[in-house]
Structures are given as structure tokens and as C-alpha cells.
Design brief:
Elements: E1 4-5, E2 9-13, E3 18-23, E4 26-29, E5 34-37, H1 41-58, E6 65-70, E7 73-77, E8 80-81, E9 84-91, H2 96-99, E10 107-117, E11 126-127, H3 129-134, H4 139-161, E12 165-172, E13 174-176, E14 182-184, E15 193-197, H5 207-210, H6 216-228
Antiparallel strand pairs: 1-2, 2-3, 3-7, 4-5, 6-7, 8-13, 9-10, 9-12, 10-11, 12-15, 13-14
Helix pairs in contact: 1-6
């Protein structure tokens, strides 16, 4: 079977309706213009994603997660992925501060949900429900993804608050399983979310790499320790 390789992961199909997600040590930013490799990053993203998928499953949210299949590998259910990214924002940061007259760090009165079309060549443009329908995603499907995304936000925001972390924003991807259910897929990691220390506002995510804020692995390790209470063992 064909192995798909993206910027941060390899997707290895199996014969039994399952897939291996192999997390790489590569980091990219600004549509691949900035690149680097950090030893242990793949391990950290795989382990953090596993922790967060388990939290969501325990709170009644269906995900593709089945288990850990190695240090930097997860085994997941095979999904037919939608060509959309669903972004939930709780605090003004990133591209939102360029689109709204609000200062970075402003807490939003309610979460904002945004849709983006997954296409590197087009720069993953923001779209709306009308665009999604033209791309073959029905209004009903989009509404269900948004509903799940807001539930994910509710669960994870509480979870991170209890650990002294602000869930600033995050990206989700969804797919449909063989039973026709819309299920959360991809990953939930510091590569796809913004996390700030609640006291210091220190970034614990890929912004450390994007904007040269310090050591990326140290930031990811700090996040891992907050979530698990354990020291990382990837080195």
C-alpha cells in the first residue's frame, strides 16, 4: 500500500482498516519556508496526541485513536478525510490579530470557529459554508464538525486550565469512518495548537520555532510534563 508522507508525519496504511501515524522530528513553518529537525519532537507529539485523544474519548468524543504503536507511532482507525481544517480560537493570536482590531492576548467573549481549505498550493485559504459545499462538503457535515470542535474546546479548555495552561487556539481535522460517522482524526499536539503558560504567557507550542522564542524541545517537554506528571524519556 502507498505510504503518504507529509511535512510532520508519515501515514502507513495497514490491511485491517487501521493506519499507522508516524510522527517525524521535522518542523516547518510559513508554508514550508522555514524548516528544521529536532530530535525527540516526533516522540513528544505522538505521546501528547495520545494523551489528549484519550481525554476526549473519556468525554464522549469519537476519535480515530486506537493506541500507541511505538515511540513515535500511533495506530488509528482509517478515515476518509475531509479537505478542511477546523480552527477554534479562544484568545486573539496568530492570523486573527491581523483580521480583527484586537490586541494579541485578548480573551474572546466566546470561541470563534473558522474553516480552511487544505491545499498547500493555495496557502490553506479561509473558506465559509458556501465554499465547503462547492468542495463537496455538505452544510450538515460542516455543522457537525463545528459542533464536535466546540465540544473538544469545552473539554480541553477545562483540562488545560486545571494544569495552568491557556488553550489559545487549535486546528482539527475530521474524516468519515466505514460506518459513516464523522470522527476526529489527525493529531492534537503543540504543532497544531497554541498553548500559553497561564502565569508567564510563555509559548509551549510551535510558535517557539516560528518566531525564534527559545528551544522548541524544552517547550514541548514542559507541556508533556504538565499533562502527564512525568519526565520525557525520548532522549
Amino acid at each position: 500500500m502507498e505510504v503518504y508522507e507529509g511535512k510532520a508525519k508519515r501515514v502507513i496504511p495497514l490491511d485491517d482498516g487501521k493506519v499507522i501515524l508516524e510522527f517525524k522530528d521535522d518542523a516547518t513553518a510559513f508554508d514550508g519556508k522555514k524548516k528544521a529537525r529536532f530530535k525527540g519532537k516526533g516522540w513528544l507529539n505522538a505521546q501528547i496526541s495520545a494523551v489528549l485523544f484519550k481525554v476526549l474519548e473519556e468525554n464522549g468524543i469519537k476519535t480515530h485513536f486506537i493506541g500507541i504503536a511505538g515511540d513515535n507511532r500511533l495506530i488509528v482507525e482509517r478515515l476518509k478525510m475531509y479537505p478542511l481544517e477546523v480552527v477554534v480560537r479562544n484568545v486573539v493570536a496568530g492570523s486573527l490579530k491581523k483580521r480583527l482590531p484586537l490586541e494579541e492576548g485578548t480573551e474572546l467573549p466566546e470561541p470563534i470557529v473558522e474553516l480552511y481549505y487544505k491545499d498547500d498550493g493555495l496557502g490553506d485559504p479561509m473558506i465559509n459554508h458556501y465554499h465547503a459545499k462547492v468542495l463537496g462538503v455538505s452544510e450538515e457535515e460542516v455543522r457537525e464538525m463545528e459542533r464536535i470542535a466546540l465540544k473538544v474546546n469545552e473539554v480541553l479548555r477545562k483540562y488545560f486550565t486545571e494544569r495552568g495552561i491557556i488553550l489559545v487556539d487549535f486546528k482539527l481535522e475530521f474524516g468519515k469512518n466505514e460506518r459513516g460517522e464523522i470522527v476526529l482524526g489527525d493529531e492534537i499536539s503543540p504543532d497544531t495548537c497554541r498553548f500559553w503558560d497561564a502565569e508567564t504567557k510563555e509559548s509551549l507550542d510551535k510558535d517557539v520555532f516560528r518566531f525564534d522564542k527559545g528551544d522548541l524541545i524544552s517547550a514541548y517537554e514542559k507541556l508533556y510534563e504538565r499533562l502527564t506528571g512525568e519526565s520525557p524519556t525520548h532522549r
